[in-house]
Amino acid sequence: MLGLCLLTARYGGRLLAPLTATGALALTLYAGHIALLASLGEWPQTAPWSATALVAVLAVASAWAWRGLVGRGPLEALVHGVPVRVAGSPPTVGDPGSDRAPMPRGAAPGEAGDMEGTTAGRAADTIGYRESSEPHTGEAR
């Protein structure tokens, strides 16, 4: 199932954009749907399937439009912005005023991360695996 979802996301990205936007604005949509249902009065109880369809269509359409025009949802921005300001952290990549994302680069031979002298593709300093001159006991350190 996970593989099917990953393949769908890879090859159906544009088709899934409305659902992706809905997931990115989940907190705002959750609060909005509570306010919407409260404002509808008794109608959702007398026509539950119609109310469900209305809320679902409005949620997906508004999230897709908001994400395309504005970006982060208002409640998501609040939840993200308060800790960043309190901690005094620099803005994250994608926030207004932030730097561009750094491009990954590989380590030069001889630097940290050099794969020479490791076993079966494991970096020498990961997961307790280290090469040594001691006899192999079959256990990781």
How does this model look, in words?
The chain has 141 residues and is an all-alpha fold. The protein has helices at residues 2-11, 17-24, 26-39, 43-46, 48-69, 74-87. The chain contains six helices and no strands. The two termini are 36 Å apart.
Q: Summarize this, please?
A:
This protein has 141 residues and is mostly helical. It has helices at 2-11, 17-24, 26-39, 43-46, 48-69, 74-87.
Q: Can you lay out the helices and strands and say which pair or pack?
A:
Elements: H1 2-11, H2 17-24, H3 26-39, H4 43-46, H5 48-69, H6 74-87
Helix pairs in contact: 2-5, 3-5
Which tags fit this structure?
single chain, 141 residues, mainly alpha, flat
Whole-number mean pLDDT: 74
Strand content: under 5%
Tell me the span between the first and last alpha carbons: 36 Å
Helix content percent band: 40-55%
* H-E string: HHHHHH
Global morphology: flat
- Helical run tally: 6
- Profile the largest sheet: none
What radius of gyration results from the CA coordinates? 25 Å
Kindly name the structural category.
mainly alpha
The counted number of beta strands is: 0
Low-confidence residue ranges: 110-134
